[in-house]
Amino acid sequence: MRYTELAFTGPATFFKAPYRPLTEPWQAEVGLLGLPYDFAVGYRPGARFAPNALREASGRYAPGPEGWFDLETETYRLQGVHLVDAGDVDPAQLEYHETFRRITEAARALRGRVKLPVFVGGDHSVTYPVLRAYDDLEELHIVQLDAHLDFSDSRNATRFSNSSPFRRAVEDVPGLKQITVVGLRGLRTNPEAYQAAKNRGHTLITARTVRENLHGVLERLPKGQRVYISFDADVLDPSILPGTSSPEVEGLSYTQAMAVVRQTVTQNQLVGFDLVELAPNLDPGGLSALVGARLLAEVLACWAG
Amino acid sequence: MRYTELAFTGPATFFKAPYRPLTEPWQAEVGLLGLPYDFAVGYRPGARFAPNALREASGRYAPGPEGWFDLETETYRLQGVHLVDAGDVDPAQLEYHETFRRITEAARALRGRVKLPVFVGGDHSVTYPVLRAYDDLEELHIVQLDAHLDFSDSRNATRFSNSSPFRRAVEDVPGLKQITVVGLRGLRTNPEAYQAAKNRGHTLITARTVRENLHGVLERLPKGQRVYISFDADVLDPSILPGTSSPEVEGLSYTQAMAVVRQTVTQNQLVGFDLVELAPNLDPGGLSALVGARLLAEVLACWAG
Amino acid sequence: MRYTELAFTGPATFFKAPYRPLTEPWQAEVGLLGLPYDFAVGYRPGARFAPNALREASGRYAPGPEGWFDLETETYRLQGVHLVDAGDVDPAQLEYHETFRRITEAARALRGRVKLPVFVGGDHSVTYPVLRAYDDLEELHIVQLDAHLDFSDSRNATRFSNSSPFRRAVEDVPGLKQITVVGLRGLRTNPEAYQAAKNRGHTLITARTVRENLHGVLERLPKGQRVYISFDADVLDPSILPGTSSPEVEGLSYTQAMAVVRQTVTQNQLVGFDLVELAPNLDPGGLSALVGARLLAEVLACWAG
Amino acid sequence: MRYTELAFTGPATFFKAPYRPLTEPWQAEVGLLGLPYDFAVGYRPGARFAPNALREASGRYAPGPEGWFDLETETYRLQGVHLVDAGDVDPAQLEYHETFRRITEAARALRGRVKLPVFVGGDHSVTYPVLRAYDDLEELHIVQLDAHLDFSDSRNATRFSNSSPFRRAVEDVPGLKQITVVGLRGLRTNPEAYQAAKNRGHTLITARTVRENLHGVLERLPKGQRVYISFDADVLDPSILPGTSSPEVEGLSYTQAMAVVRQTVTQNQLVGFDLVELAPNLDPGGLSALVGARLLAEVLACWAG
Amino acid sequence: MRYTELAFTGPATFFKAPYRPLTEPWQAEVGLLGLPYDFAVGYRPGARFAPNALREASGRYAPGPEGWFDLETETYRLQGVHLVDAGDVDPAQLEYHETFRRITEAARALRGRVKLPVFVGGDHSVTYPVLRAYDDLEELHIVQLDAHLDFSDSRNATRFSNSSPFRRAVEDVPGLKQITVVGLRGLRTNPEAYQAAKNRGHTLITARTVRENLHGVLERLPKGQRVYISFDADVLDPSILPGTSSPEVEGLSYTQAMAVVRQTVTQNQLVGFDLVELAPNLDPGGLSALVGARLLAEVLACWAG
Amino acid sequence: MRYTELAFTGPATFFKAPYRPLTEPWQAEVGLLGLPYDFAVGYRPGARFAPNALREASGRYAPGPEGWFDLETETYRLQGVHLVDAGDVDPAQLEYHETFRRITEAARALRGRVKLPVFVGGDHSVTYPVLRAYDDLEELHIVQLDAHLDFSDSRNATRFSNSSPFRRAVEDVPGLKQITVVGLRGLRTNPEAYQAAKNRGHTLITARTVRENLHGVLERLPKGQRVYISFDADVLDPSILPGTSSPEVEGLSYTQAMAVVRQTVTQNQLVGFDLVELAPNLDPGGLSALVGARLLAEVLACWAG
């Protein structure tokens, strides 16, 4: 009695997967959790609307039981992988400590249910409470695709904005080892943050380096580790994803960004993934949400092998 | 672990009600069913996106167990009413006979589950297959709020467009008695449709009449009947709801339209309600979806008493 | 082989009328001429796009040979009236004297072809060269629906902006008698223009007066005269027509504005009509062009009787 | 060498007044201070962009030394009134206590410089720290034009959102006497807030009451008091001001709202005014900012007498 | 008396060519026919508006009698080529068999009038009835620029959607030989369609192959054949043409797509061209229509030699 | 008491520099002057809004006293450079001779105050009156980044449109030597203009040449000269800057355009820079203004060394 062929039928969940709140018991291979929080953005807000916008756009990529057929390899992708939409964490608005507490709690719960937890922001500040949920791991590596360092100790009188998630994380997550940042660019880098990242031995790779030597960049990615990938939408060139708070020209192409993600996933154990800083309201034509949904779909397919 | 205070957290369902597909067994007081079909629109499409847009906007009006507190009467509304989001009927795109078959089937199923079925279009053509699901009733009255008659035998080479739902319904639904249309206006009325409606004894009330004598209009509404209300978004003045295929100036105010709905609901037995022709893509500021969600909320509260 | 039922089929001409350039010989009852000139706007441009936008929107009101059936009077309107789209005058961009020369020349030509010439701007500056084409009339009255006087001698270093068309016209059109302005409002009136209009004996009627006593306003309109109506889109309340350079709150409702137009047309000989200052680009939902097309349609029907 | 006739020339300041930061010494009759803070909005953000949008739009109403000529009274308004743009308070983003401290400090400074301080939000939460700057007054009355009470003790885990400014203010501002709220409506009133306001003796006037008896409403306004007016943009009907986080149908017309403001200003001593909750990004046609600028202009003119 | 230098003067026809309906007798070198039909789109509608949007945008490329001067080759292009706008086929809305009958009939008529018929969609389903008008040819080759195969036997309960035009065409057009598809990509290929295309011996070239070896791709295009080119707007990267129902990242650059078109035109006999799936409403900045008009212009110039 | 960390606080001036009108005495290293004039655009207007839009967007790049830290070179840029916002020249609307007189006068004044005058248009016609302010130089070279020649003697009946600034400049500026144009493309070049530029010995470099051999292009730029750079926004590919009147596909990447600018600045003495033809209203997502502000920032940093 229900039919699922058209992309736009609802209610919209991630990839038309069943919605199962974390208050109920369930297990799955992949769980997607929305984090509609953008109160930590210092410029153009709107990422709070991303989880629902990505749910709607992802209807185009609902895999169905047979998965997708891949033209290039003539194989099926995502076949039989069990996905669940775990809903959203409700932010406590101004009270960021409480919001972050809720996020950490939900992320821990999600980790207990699925092999691959996927977090859909929200602004980049949410990565900090998400990473706190990984404090039981002895070793955790991060690959961050981002135009910006997001490693400031403080900005604009606060230590918890979307400029600081990784700075806070290295303080609170004992197993957090190497952070590899790919796609850096822009006129204004926080020098204190830059120095701190250098001092801690982070691998910092600019977008220019990606353009000039993608192969070399792929070589510098972690291998054989437990890796969490944090994908900031602004790592992509704004021509392909304009809907983000702080777009920066000279970004990565979709192909380049996916090469970094694919290489990372293939040669490591992926323990988590987030997509943040996508603001659908800043792209009235709707392309950004479609690109974001496509990206999530491809990450899942890549992870499922 | 989950919090539901903010309007925009997802996955979006109608009024944050649980989603229960019609393939599962359940009973509730109110069920809302999306009909994302706008292939019968002859002008500006987009009503296919209305069910999901209204789900998102209706997050503002999620009642919670205690309902809403009404400032004017100092009472609680919708307290304890059990709502279900029954999902969408998936249209068969070009094959309208098949789409209409699916809609009738789903509408029948919904009627069997709930006291008040609410249908969220989609263009106005969907009202015809919905009404077919009421063919067991001995008597059914319709109150249609609409700028247009929608009673054409044929338009533009088809008999099933959004100009003809009530013409088809009177042919196929034996118990269908009086149709009362409120809000008519515009330069171009189909004279054949007008004559046919007059011949069948329909009550035709123009928007001008509503403006000049709302009280008299309320007097002419059915009383003590089983009534189905079909609410075409274009009955409202486009200043308050611009997101519709064929806006017509000099429309009803929200207050006037709600007066007609309220009076109808109060003095009859409401057996169904639809909201159609809302095209969210034609209102980039988002007001239309918010007004539509508010309207649905108020209808529910009015019905629940 | 060609079908004309759907509103959006092209090429778009005014009301799907045949396009006949003024370089060819023809006669008709009504001719519509586009004046896509907005270089005289001092604030938000875009009226240059109005003629084509109104052509597209007017497809909804293509009368066909039988005209439209009017629900309220149960009669047909515009039946058999012969309309022609006379194309656009190509502006000479910066060289306004040349543009105005072309407009006057085209307006004279159009007057020689049709009973009712209709001019579709463009900004309000075009009314001046249009009125120059009426310099053969011994007596000409003007009814101007407008939020602003547009009677400035000079503004911002120029005497030919959209603030001055009527000031220039009274200098150059010898038969121009009374000017009746309806709908005035706004914080900033040019005192010199106001005094000059008072001195010349113009009838100045504010929007507040229309709201408070529409009947009295209708009494003050000219009777038994040759009248040219100049309709500035900003006379309407911006809630119903937001697409205009300089919207002013507290405007006329569509009903009020049409009452003024209808009364004027009924009790006088209409020798010309213009619709100006509609900027479709300032209304992304498209309502303004639809309202403008509806207004033109109703003026034609009203004139045809 | 500089010319100021066109509305859109920059840099944009409020009414093209000189920008004088509060760090410098100066005195004026009116000072306008921007409060670009919307981190306390629980729904659709964007009010952070209002101060600059209103600066741009207010270029249309730059009075010049001679003021504006008023058509209706044939007098000049705002003639010779000395205005200053005092700039913006820079918010501390997430750290609302610090933001509020800065706002209170700036509001105190502004009060020391001008006869009429005008505050341009920002969301409604900013009214709380502004009112703290009036804690030296023995008696202060408030007239709040608003669709919502904004008197919640707590909402969504925080006590400082845009739902609570007046609740916090009555706790911290000892001289704060009567609060008169005009324009209340909407389905969801916080019952605890409603009861608390009733208990404290607030005057609560619904939008329906305004529609039904404006004269009676004007009678209930304070007289002969020191009054602060807080104007929430959502008191207006969304047809005229759609750019606001939480629009509510059945709002006040511009004329009704200005009648309330004018009466309040005329019969009291106005000690402050704020305009909040205008989100220009939610109105792509730009009307909302123009209406907001017009409103500010009219308040100034009304105050100046 | 009429001037044609500015791009935006109307009425808009393709390249400001004369409009000559197919009901009248005429001959020309090139005829452009609009097919404003998008009822077969399963995702985001709007291509019905493309013919008129492309007429407006193509005003920028009106060649005039002398054609355009080409900077690179220092020669004139399109000099003296006689173009005609043949108008639109009016769709029968829901009744696709009737719509397709009209399209085939009109396409046959156009082929009888011109050397190069150009079809402007509409969604991709229209290519099927267009190709039926070529059933007299003994041999017909197709070059399809497209992100998707569009060779499904059935999708979503219909065999006539925009996913199936070429599947239907190979059934009904006896002379249809090789189909070469360039630009394929995306996650979800219909495996049945893929296998059927392989079995029939189609040449399938991915976008990745174009990026990696454009020269090799050009080698694989047909030579010395009668060729029909079907250009789906989504073959282009969405950064350059975002206004399309189903954008896919990693698309062809304009330069790459034109290289394929140019090579095809140069070494074959072009018997028809269509541009489909451009949805102007999905690109509020208007770039997509401008790119589409430019593309059509370049195809004409390329064909004219 | 005032804080300047957030990008969107106002009043918006270029890079949050102090506003100092040219009527006051001051000296600085860099002065930015707005020229909000777009009455010479023959297609899509809106560049009149660019100066204020760029002021708002440039808040993201406010350097502060310490300048920006550059990640790639690990140095500080723009450290201690004294910037001033010199305001806008108020255009005389239709009276272009007067507007141009004002622009020349202001440009002369600015040259007397600063080392590097930066002009922010406005359409490209403004470059002519700006260049007149350099008529005291014995030798002046121009590097023009542009999709179009802008060297027409006349277009559409005027000699002063945005197609002619350099033609007029070579007539009136005696020291004007070589003009190097980079980025040419598009279907329609004015042959008379092309021949005139060739005859005068201009260096004309197409966008294709830049793509094929950027190094060779950099070799052809002037060396050791006094150079004025005129940057037309349409030189960039519209995927990265869609907000411009006449976008042309196959444009320069940001990286390519900056390479040309950087090389020019490095090996010459930069005496002036303009950015023109950016129309923010044509890019509702706001990317174009952000890219324009970034470009200006980078030019300043590059010039400061």
From TrEMBL, chains A, B, C, D, E, F:
It holds the Pfam family Arginase. One of its GO terms (molecular function) is metal ion binding. Coiled coil: none annotated. Mn(2+) 2 binds at H124, D232, D234. One of its GO terms (biological process) is putrescine biosynthetic process from arginine, via agmatine. SUPFAM superfamilies: Arginase/deacetylase (SSF52768). Keywords: Hydrolase, Manganese, Metal-binding. PROSITE patterns: ARGINASE_2. InterPro entries: Ureohydrolase, Ureohydrolase_dom_sf. Mn(2+) 1 binds at D146, H148, D150. Binds 2 manganese ions per subunit. Its cofactor is Mn(2+). Belongs to the arginase family. PANTHER family: ARGINASE/AGMATINASE, GUANIDINO ACID HYDROLASE, MITOCHONDRIAL. This is Arginase/agmatinase/formiminoglutamase. It comes from Meiothermus ruber (strain ATCC 35948 / DSM 1279 / VKM B-1258 / 21).
